[in-house]
Amino acid sequence: MPDTHPHHRGRLEEIARREMLFRGFLPDFSNEVETELGNLQTPAKPNGEQIKDLRGLLWCSIDNDDSMDLDQLTAAEALEYGRTRIWVSIADVDALVDRGSHIDAHALHNTTSIYTAAKIFPMLPDKLSTDLTSLNPDRDRVSMVVEMVISPDGTLEDGVVYRAWVHNYAKLVYENVSAWLDGQIPALEIFEAVPGLAQSLRLQDRAAHEMGGLRHRHGALTLETIEAKPIFEGNSVLALQRQEKNRARSIIEDFMIAANTVTANFLTENGYPSVHRVVRAPERWDQIMEVARDHGGNLPNQPDAIALQKFLMQEQKDHPLTFPDVSLSIIKLIGSGEYVAEKPGQEAPGHFGLAVSDYSHSTAPNRRYPDLIIQRQLKALIAKEPSPYSFETLETLARHLTIKEDDAQKVERTVAKSAAALLLSNRIGETFDGIITGASDKGTWVRVLSVPVEGKVIRGAKGANVGHHVRVRLLSVDVDRGFIDFQRI
Description:
Helix content is 37%, strand content 24%. By secondary structure, it is of the alpha+beta class. Helix 1 runs antiparallel to helix 13 and helix 9 packs antiparallel against helix 11. The two termini are 20 Å apart.
């Protein structure tokens, strides 16, 4: 049936709340949290500690156009022999979120901000995450800083962690920075107000390109999935906008991977236990080999990230249209990441998809609880204090973090499917070009090319195989369950 509900946003928010409650999340902050929040008025000022003053660096944030919780800033300077110094500044959330407080308990319960099509359910109240603990423009903030030296071939030569004052001179958006780097627009307005920022961004782009290239040569995987963001007009879903990878996103991605590696090593080298982010070598490697064979590739019998990366690069070059579907198949077969407590000196499973061995989530403490745990440990280490968390406590936390992250992704996926169903609810009977993305005993799935949505082929599926180009007619949608059903013509 066509959807006649005029308030799409409200309906999607209802679905999001239902899914969150079903998965054991707290969609709202308690009265106790609100009371604690009322007592917080200004960003914390550290007392009598050795804190560097780096407010003279040309710090900027690069994020989504609607991001208000700014977790990191970046800055760069050129060194001799083609090397680059990179700074990543991370919001000091621990300064205002005391361990064991009601605010902390809420954050620990949910463990992450949940980004649904209708609404963001933040891990921390907005007064904190978008104001007092956010690295907002034209504000002085004390933060954690990861300082790194990158060689011309992308090697991380050196990395240190300390606390410092910073100042955000420019709140930038991925798409604008990327368009400028690609030469699609002449300059950003902010360049006039902040002399030297353009050169700094060029440096950051070059260093990130070198770092990413080196990781990919070592087996970091090139993967591309279709992530679509609903565009609202008033309260109605007007369209789904596909989020494209671009150069500015790559800058932040590569810098954060490097910073997360530095923080993990810093804790390990100083004898602290910590929570690492790992993606184990795939157990279903035989099925990954099969996917490669189906697409003309040939992988060795044992998990080999470099060989898999070569196959993916070739596939992306030869078949760009269907590459997101191959990527998704590989991602599912590799399996999801997990949080694991590790003792110093313990052999780490590493991160198969990123080609790094020691890796912790530490760069988004406003949005993820594991990053707040790592931040508390880093601050204790810098202050020459023992770890605030025992290894046994970290083991318990790691299990909880993994479960809740998985649950959060399920909530986000369900609401995204409902948003897609809403968008198509008044197009029943229309025909679309698509690509078969799945064909098994469980059913046949098609990805529509003109709108970034996927649905089930419930009629005419016989004989359809993955990769086939097909024409389908939309039969029905079920918004509450996020179902979209097609007939193959």
